[in-house]
Amino acid sequence: MAAETIFEALEKDDFGVGVLKRMQDRFESSWARDELFQVRNFHAGFDGGLFMGMFHTGLQMITGGRGFFDNKPVEPDSKHMMQLKDYIARKGEENFRRTLKFDNEYLFDKLTDVYRSGTKHEEDQPPHLVIADYDICNNRCTEEYGNPCQYFCPAQVYEMIEDESHPGRKKLQLTPSNCVHCKTCDIADPYQIINWVVPEGGGGPNYTNC
Ligand code: SF4
Asked: Domains along the chain?
């Protein structure tokens, strides 16, 4: 639909609102809109937890996606991130320190997953993950949230490494060429200072089912 609209704009040599608005019109009358309309309240249904979510999902399937409510306002995902002190108080230090063991038969480490996703980017392109303030990452976030980006990113793009200019401290290092374009970081970052922009050259994952 985007390509058809761009083609139309190029053909008419007109990039005004009148022509570009056709993208929205095309979407509104497409199968994609009908499909998405059926699941418009899916995420909101899980606001009250897993079991309420399953109940709401069943109801939405019967009512064409409406359920008990329509367009229930929900907070952005980033507002649900728990601070480190609250997490440890609730779950306990031992649970916080628990780490997964990867055997690469049943559980795969992130870099193996990236390799299997067939992800490729031009190595010398500008980073498509733009961080607005590294100072927040290296200081405030470390204390308040424990740098959750290094955990929620499935592709090991974010790592906290030793800061050679400040011994004993860590700093954020990015490897954008690993990115599998899930956009979790843009959505979940509690400070909303990560901006995912489209990478150059059509790079990204290329899943082939192997
Ligand atoms: S978009 Fe996904 S894979 Fe890419 S850096 Fe963000 S969390 Fe990681």
From this structure: 2-62 (no CATH), 77-202 (3.30.70.20)
